Fold each of these.
Amino acid sequence: MLCGRCPPIEDMDTIASLCERYRVDLAHADHVARLTVELFDALQRLHRLPPRARDLAEAGAMLHNVGLTVDEPSHHLVGRDIIAAAQLTGFTHAERLMLACITAFHRKTVRPESEQLFQVLNPVQQQETLALSALVRIADGLDYSQTQSTHIDTIELDVSEPTKAIRVRVTGAHSHEDAARAEKKSDLWRALFCPVYVSGRLTSPGLALDHTLAAAGRRILRYHLDQIEPQEWLLAADNPIPPRQIDRLYTTVRYMRATVRAFGEHYRSKRVRPLAKGLSQLEAYLQRVRERDVWMAILEKYGQGLEPDSDLSAGAEALRAAWQAERESAQADLIEYTHGIDHGTWFEAIATFTQSDRDDKTAPLGKPARLRHAVDLIQAAHLARVKAFDELPARPAVEDVRRVYLAVERLRSITDGLRDVLPPAQVERIQTACTAAQETWGIIYDAYTAAHAALRFLDEHAADEATLRGVLAFGESQRRVIDARLPAWRTFLEPLLVI
C-alpha cells in the first residue's frame, strides 16, 4: 500500500525503469547489490534489521549511481533527488525517502543532520537507513575497480569486547585496491557498530597488455605473496612445521625470486635489492629444512622393504635419527629468522612494494615499457635458456641436470605469472612439459643429494660395522635410481625444444 496520493500504475517507476532511463551501469549495480545482500546476511547478528530491510538494501545498492550520468561530481545528491521525486512501485513513501538517503550517503562524508529527507524519517527508520547506507558504502568500495571481479571469500565476526570487529577477505584480480577502498568507506559502519578490516587476495595476477612492465612485475609478486596466508610467513614455533607447508613456502619464494630477476630492472635498484636479498636469505633457511624432508621421505620409502633387525635397517635408522635432528635444528634456525626484526621489516617492505608504483622506473622512449611490447620476448628469453641445454651430452653430470631443472623452473614460474596475457593453449603446453621434466629431474637430483648426505653422515659420525654397511647400501640404492633415470633425461627436454 503506497502512502499518500497514488498515481496510475502506468505512470509509476520501477527500479529497472529508473536504471534504464538514467543509463545506470547495470554490471556495477548488480554486483554491488549482490555484495550488499551478502554483507546484510552475514552481519545480521550485529545490525538486527528486519527482513524487509534486506529488500531496501538491494534496491538502494541498485540505485546508488542513478544520478551518475546527470552530474558525476554530485551524483549522490542528484540521485537522491531523482529517487525522492520518483513514484517507485512496491515501496512506501517512507521507504522511498530511505532509498533516497542511502543514495545520498553512499559517498563522501555522511552528515545525516544536514539531510532534510533524513529528518522526515522516524528514529527507527533513521537507524535502519544509516545501517543500510553503511552496507552499500562497503559494497560499493568492493567494486572500486569497476571490474566486478572482486568477490567475498570469508566474513569473520568477533563480537567480544573490546576486540569487536569484522574481518572480510575478498578475492579477485583487483581485490587489493578494492579492499583498501572498501575499508576506507567502512567509516559509517565503524561509527555505528565496529571496525571493519578488509583484505584482498589475488587468485591470478590480473595482468592486462596495457600494464607497464613495472606494474606487471609487482602484480605477479603480489599474486605469489597471496598464495601463502600472512600468518604462514611468520612460522609458528610450537610444533614441527609440516613438510607440505615448507615445500609451498619454498616454491613460492623461488617463484618470487624468478619474478624479481625477470622484472627487477624496471625498479629503483636501491629499493629492489634488499627485497631480493630477503628472498634469497629466506630461501636458504627453507632449503635446509626442505632437503631433510626430502631425504627422510626417500629413506622412509627405501626402508619399507627392509628386515627390521638387518644391517640395512640399522643404517637407515641411523640416517633417520641424524637427519631428524638436523631438521629440528634447521627449523629452529628458520623460526628464529622469520621472527626476527629483519624478516618482519622485509615482509612489510615487499607487501608495500607490490601495492605502490613509487619505485617504478619510467622506460625511455624506444624501450619496451608495457606488457604488449615485451610479453612474448620475456617468455621467449626464458624458453631460450632452456633450449640452450640441448648441447648437453646423452648422459650429463647430475649438476648439469640441476642447472636445466632450474631453467625450467624459471620458465614455468614466468609462464604462470604471465598466463593472463598468453594464449591458454600455449600456457598449458609449457606448464605440462615443465611439470613432467621437473618431476623426473627432481627425482634424479634428490637421489644425488641423499646419497651425498649419507656419505657425509659417515664422515661426521662414528658408525659400527652394521651401520656402515647399511648407510653405504642406502647410498648405493640412490645411485641406482640415478643410473636408471639419467639416460632418459633428454626425453623430458624434447617437448620444450619444439615450442
Amino acid sequence: MEKIRKNRVKKYRESIPLSISELARKAELTPQTIAKMEKGIATRKNSELKVAKALQKKHEEVFPQ
C-alpha cells in the first residue's frame, strides 16, 4: 500500500488559479504527476521541488512534514 503524504499543492494551485495542466507545464512535469501529488501519493523529491518553485513557495510550505 502506498503512503499518503499530506500536502498543499491543490490549495496553492487553486488560489493562483492554475489548472493541473498549467501547473504541470510551469513545473515541467506531467499532469499525472501533479494529480498524484494532490491525492497524496508519494512522488520524487525533485518533482516536489519543481512544483514548489512553480507555485513560488518554499518546499516546506507546500509539503509540510
Amino acid sequence: MHKILGSFVVVLLMFWCSTSFANSTEEKLAQAILDENIVRINVLLRQVDDINAVRYKGKALLNFAQENGKKDAAEFLISRGAIEQKIEINWVNSLVSPAGVKFALSNGGSLQDQVNNVPLLHFAANLNRVSVVHELLKQGAKPNTLDGSGRTILHVFARIRSNQGLLLAINNQTRESIKDNNGLTYKSVLLGSATGQNLLSRLNRPAASQSEYLTATQLAANARDSRALRYLLLATKGKHRIKINPNLLTPQNFEIALILNRYAKVKAERFIAGKSFYQVINDNFDAGYYLVAMGFNPTPKTQKDLNIMADLCQTHDLMPMLSAGGVTTELSLAQLQVNSIFDFLIQNCSADQDMMLNQLSAQEELASKIIPDDLILQGYLPGAWQSSDKKISYQFNSDNTFVHTFTSSGSKKSVEGNWEVVPAGVELKFAGSGATEFLMVSSLTEEKLKGDFGWGKYQLEKM
C-alpha cells in the first residue's frame, strides 16, 4: 500500500514540475521577446521541443513578437524555424464590440468576410449594433454594400426601425435611392408600417416619391397594419400595388379588405372570387358584416342561397346582417317562390316571431357595427370633446370648423381648421400649415368617441 501511495506522489510531483516548468518557460520566453533579448531567447528555446507548439496566452511565439512590434526577436525566431500561424477569426464573437472588430482585422480578418453568407455590415446592423457598424465603416467597409437580397444597411435599419442606425447610414453617404430585389427603397420599408412612418417623419429627409408610397402599400397589407395602409391610400388617393384575392377576406384581414374598399374603391366582389354572399358566410359568418359594410347586397339569388340561409338561421341571427345590407323583411323573391324574407325565416328558422321582430329594432346599431354611419357622425360630432386626462380637446362647430387645444411643454396651445366627414371617420385640415390629419372612428355615441389617429388610439368624451 505504501509503495502504491509513494508511486502516486512521485507521478503527481513529476506532473506538477513539468507543468510549472512549461508555464514558466512560456512566460520567460514572452518576456525575453518583449525585451528583444536574443541571447535569453536562444537559451530558453533549448528547453522547447517544438518552437511552433509553444503558446503564450493562446498565441504562437512568432505571432506574439509580430503583434508587439518586436522585429529583431521575430527575425531570430524565424531563423530558428518559427512559422507565422494564422489565427481563426470568429466574426460572430468579434462583431459584438468595436474592439472585437479591431482585433479580428489585426489578426487576418477581412472586411470582405461574411457570416453565414451575410456581409459583416448587415450582420451587425440586423442586431442593431450601431457602434459595431460605425467601427466597420471607419475601418473602410463600403456603406453601399449589398446583401443577397440587394439591401443596404439602410434597408436593414429601416426594417428594425433603428433611428440611430438610419442616421449613421445616412451620414456615411449610403445611397438612399438603392432598391432591393423586391423594388423597395429604405423609405418604402419605413412607410410600410405606422411606426416606420413616424420614424421617417423625424429623419427630415426629402419627401418619398409616389412610387415609394405605392410599393409600401403591399408591405402594410402583408403586415396587416391598418393605420399605415389608411395613411398610404390617403397619400396616393387610393392607388396601391396590393394583390387582391380571396385570401384578403379572412378574419385576420377583414379590416384591410374594408380599408381597401373605402379608400381604394375596391369592390367587395373582388374579395370573394365568384362565390355568393351565402357561400362566403357559410364558411365565415362574420365576413358577412364586412361585405355589407362594403355595400354588398345580401339578397339571396339562388335556391342554393336559400338552402344555406335556412341552415345558418338555425344557429345564427341573420336578420341584423340582412338589415345592415338593406334587405327589408317585405322583400319578395318571386323567382324563388318566396313571398317575403321575413316569412321565409319564420318558416325555416327555430327563432320565434317576437324575437325576429325585436331584432329589427337594432337595425341602425348593427348597420354601423363596422363603420359608424356618416349621417350619425355628422349629427353627433358638433360640440366640445376632451380626452380623459384633459390634455387634448376638440371643439367641432356645426359650420365644419374646429379648434384643437393641447398641452405642450407645460403650456396650452391651440390650432384651428376645418373638419369633414369621410368614409370611416373625420378628416381634419389645419389652417396655416395646410396639414391634414385623419381621425378614424371605431365607435360613436352621443357621449363617447373612440378611434385612432396616426399617432395612436384615443377616447374622447363630450364636455
